[in-house]
Amino acid sequence: MIVHVFDTPAQVARAAAAVFSAQILKKPDSVLGLATGGTPVDTYKELIKLHQDGILDFSQVTTFNLDEYEGLPTSHPESYVAFMKRNLFDHVNIKQSRLPDGLNKDHQKECAAYDEEIRQAGGVDLQLLGIGNNGHIGFNEPSDHFVYDTNLVDLTPSTIKANRRFFDSEDQVPRKALSMGIGTIMEARSILMIALGEGKAEVVQKMVEGDIDPQVPASILRAHKDVTVLLDRAAASKLSL
Fold first, then answer.
1. Which residues are catalytic?
2. What pLDDT digit, counting tens, does each position of 160-217 carry?
3. 3-state SS assignment for residue 53
4. N or C: less crowded end of the chain, CB within 10 Å?
């Protein structure tokens, strides 16, 4: 695990976009794993600008997202389909994108199909991750074991509370989501983690310097051979580096 610390979130976003740019320029038909939430938005803005400036071509790229809420229509503004369209897909020339289908009643079949589609695409070349306040990656919540495959997850109260800001009330926040499992994430050839703000400092310290522990799901990333972590000063403030 390589950790880089930057002075500002804007620098983190530019650095993350540079990592994605290098991947796409090296392999135009890259398979990218994408994330949602507030953390990657500025990175997506940087990628959009690079595309609009004629530097990046996404036409051969395939993307798979980490997760999607269960039961939330794709037309809902807080579905992750809508999020990705609003923050990236509608602004670049990606032709092949896939998110878990949260409306498929057969969750087991949908999750198995999602993992198979990733395998058929050749696997993820570069996976983008954020980290939850409780250490989750994707929606893999703290547990007594690591879940391998894409699966239906019960969101913890802390995750529901964190996602409350995107909805009119906490009652509207979905209680379940389909999420890539830890094993699916770990099969990516390279992983890029972004964490911003003082609120992430404690869990970042546990991820980087604590034990590998399913109660801190992101800690498993230390077992991956190619993980880059980009932090701003605030998120790095509890590290003993």
1. 67, 134, 136, 141
2. 888 888 888 888 888 999 999 999 999 999 999 999 999 999 999 999 999 999 999 9
3. coil
4. C
Give 126's contacts (C-beta < 8 A, 6+ positions apart): 19, 20, 23, 30, 32, 33, 188, 189, 190, 191, 192
For residues 189 and 225, is the Cβ–Cβ distance under 8 A?
A: no
Residue 85 contacts residue 120 (beta carbons within 8 Å): no
Does domain 8-232 correspond to CATH entry 3.30.1490.190? Answer: no
Packing angle, helices 41-52 and 9-26, rounded to 10: 50
> Domain segments of the chain: what residues?
8-232
Q: How many residues does the chain have?
A: 241
CB contact set of 202 (below 8 Å; sequence gap of 6+): 238
Q: Are 69 and 107 in contact (CB under 8 A)?
A: no
Question: CA angle, corner 98, sides to 94 and 100, nearest 5?
Answer: 155
DSSP element (H, E) containing 21: helix 9-26
Backbone angles phi, psi at 8, to 5 degrees: -135, 155
